[in-house]
Design goal:
Structural class: alpha+beta
Helix content: 10-25%
Number of helices: 7
InterPro entries: B30.2/SPRY_sf (IPR043136), SPRY_Ssh4-like (IPR035780), Ubq-SigPath_Reg (IPR050618)
Keywords: Membrane, Transmembrane, Transmembrane helix
Largest sheet: 7 strands, antiparallel
Main location: membrane
Distance between the termini: 130 Å
Subcellular location: Membrane
Strand order of the largest sheet: 1-4-13-6-7-8-9
Order of helices and strands: HHHHEEEEHHEEEEEEHEEEE
Length: 378
């Protein structure tokens, strides 16, 4: 009796080690804390080996004849819309002749030149000027006194001789009237005024909420004295504006914070040390030319993000000849890659000074007072 009981216990131990419950215990140990995995306990079947499976009588459901008389309706259910057959027709033709509205887009960059046919400066001078501007950042707007601002409004501006300038600067009897004469050996030089014509603190439309125009004229008396030339043109004049500080051994328009129109090739230069852009024809003796800028509150005020680097003021730059406006351009236009720093310094964020550039032997007069101008921008 004890032997039979012992054999029975041995049989139970064997089934618990290798039977279905034993396998379940091993499986559960691999995922003891996984609530998404709970294998089911297998069920024991008591069907003996002598019993055989007997299929149910009759055919499988859905395969035999039906006595219900049910017939499925033809076509889709009524609550589903009838779909048209697929079409292989091409999509409708897009009318490419319709021109989209581009009035809100910035003007495209004008076609520039790699070099000027009359350029007289060397590449070494350009590299020196670039290093100079990198070492001398633009000045912030200055706090001018009311007396100084009144002197500017009455055209009491004086011309300052650049270190490279060889010639004479002669003030005339009327305020704002100067006569200038250079030597044939004068190299590139920028003549600036002692005071700005545009003061951010006093004139910016962001402060005054009204437009501000700056302008002056220059009369060409003579160009050339038979001096030396590096490119066939021995002398020239440039008229424009600069933001200080500026390398006065370069013509205005060639370096950062400047714009100008040049007499030798008739091109306009905006922070451009290469070939500039088409603007007018070369200046001739006896002609009077003028340069102006109008800053105005933006017609389409920018968003916060745009104001960090986009349009801040509406800027109209214009060039006159013998009392008539002949050219103009948007001061916010997109500039080409030759313009170092884009329009930095000349978008109304810095004080601006009138600037006259010269090289070689030239004679000219400068007029800062409105009573002396042929063109009246106001």
């Amino acid at each position: 009796m004890f032997k039979k009981l012992k054999d029975k216990l041995k049989g139970d131990d064997h089934s618990s080690a290798g039977g279905p419950m034993g396998n379940y215990s091993q499986q559960a140990q691999f995922h003891p804390s996984n609530p998404y995995y709970a294998p089911q306990q297998p069920q024991e079947h008591t069907i003996s080996s002598e019993q055989k499976y007997q299929p149910p009588p009759g055919p499988p459901p859905g395969h035999g004849p039906s006595n219900s008389g049910y017939e499925p309706p033809s076509g889709p259910p009524s609550h589903f819309p009838q779909q048209p057959p697929p079409s292989w027709d091409p999509p409708p033709y897009h009318d490419w002749t319709v021109i989209p509205d581009t009035s809100q887009l910035p003007p495209p960059p004008s076609i520039g030149y790699e070099s000027s046919p009359t350029a007289n400066a060397t590449g070494e001078e350009g590299a020196r000027a670039l290093a100079w501007t990198q070492a001398n950042p633009l000045w912030p707007p200055q706090n001018l006194t009311s007396a100084t601002h009144a002197a500017i409004q009455s055209a009491q501006l004086a011309l300052l001789k650049a270190p490279t300038y060889i010639g004479d600067l002669m003030p005339q009897q009327q305020a704002g009237h100067w006569k200038c004469r250079t030597h044939a050996k004068c190299t590139d030089s920028a003549i600036l005024t002692n005071l700005p014509m545009y003061s951010v603190r006093w004139d910016s439309p962001l402060n005054t909420h009204r437009p501000k125009t700056i302008y002056f004229e220059l009369k060409v008396l003579g160009i050339g004295r038979g001096g030396f030339s590096r490119s066939g043109v021995d002398s020239g004049i440039a008229i424009g504006f600069v933001a200080p500080p500026y390398p006065t051994f370069r013509l205005p328009g060639h370096e950062r914070g400047s714009l100008a129109v040049h007499s030798d090739d008739g091109r306009r230069y905006v922070n451009n040390c290469r070939g500039g852009n088409d603007c007018t024809t070369p200046f001739q003796p006896g002609e009077t030319v003028g340069i102006g800028m109008t800053f105005a509150p933006p017609k389409n005020p920018p968003s916060y993000d745009q104001s960090q680097g986009g349009t801040i003021l509406d800027i109209d730059v214009f060039f006159t000849r013998n009392g008539k406006r002949v050219q103009g351009w948007d001061g916010n236009e997109e500039l080409d890659v030759e313009s170092e720093g884009g329009a930095m310094g000349i978008r109304g964020e810095c004080d601006l000074f009138p600037a006259i550039g010269v090289f070689g032997g030239v004679d000219f007069e400068v007029f800062f007072h409105p009573a002396q101008w042929l063109y009246h921008p106001f």
